[in-house]
Amino acid sequence: MASAVIGSLIGTYDLKMAQQWRDEDISHRAQEKQWRDDDIKRAYSWRNEDVEREKRLNKLENERRITDARSEQLSAVSNLSALLGGFAMVANVEISLPDDVSNIVMFFYGTTSAAVILCMLCCMLMCTLLLLAITQYASQELETDLRHLSFDELDVESPFYVWWLKRCEQDWLLAYKFFRMGIFLFLCTVSWVGWVQFEKTAIAGIGMTAIAALSFIFWQVRIESKWRYLLYFPETKIPPS
């Protein structure tokens, strides 16, 4: 009888301990599952951070390439305007005027030459100042503006485009208008040179005027109309100030 009671107690104890071990095993497995889930979430978060960091670095590099391209464009226009303005200035200094040249012809020639120099000078100065503005923005503000973009905005927003359209686009278009006007006046100066140097030979003046007119038409119809789109940025959403 006593052995039966002892056996029953031992069996009950074993059953209780087995149940406890089972509960502890289930709890441990649940804890391991939680640890695995935490590891997966942490790895996923780190991966997203790495992807975002790499994407922001690529975006910054792309923005810097855009600023470099715009700087090259401004530098090219500035150098060409300086070249044409300098050529007009040298032509004024080096030209040998006949003694009997008409005052009216001289007035138009001098006025046109001065207008060429001033238009090209304004274009060169504005392009130079825009270059300085781009340099300052790229070195001081670009990274800050890029950090303010969310991850989803990196593919659709361009900080440099937005800054350029808000701060520099109008000045750039004005500088290019000066450049276009300078080219037109430069060709007019070429035609006036024919009338100044060859006033007594009308055919020479007519020939130089015709060549200048054809050159301007070719510039407008074949060159500028074809490549004018290079002067503008694509449409970009500008957030309110």
From TrEMBL:
InterPro entries: CRAC_channel (IPR012446), Orai_sf (IPR038350). GO terms for cellular component: membrane. It is a multi-pass membrane protein. Keywords: Membrane, Transmembrane, Transmembrane helix. It is found in: Membrane. The chain crosses the membrane at residues 74-95, 107-134, 174-195, 201-219. Belongs to the Orai family. PANTHER family: CALCIUM RELEASE-ACTIVATED CALCIUM CHANNEL PROTEIN 1. This is Uncharacterized protein.
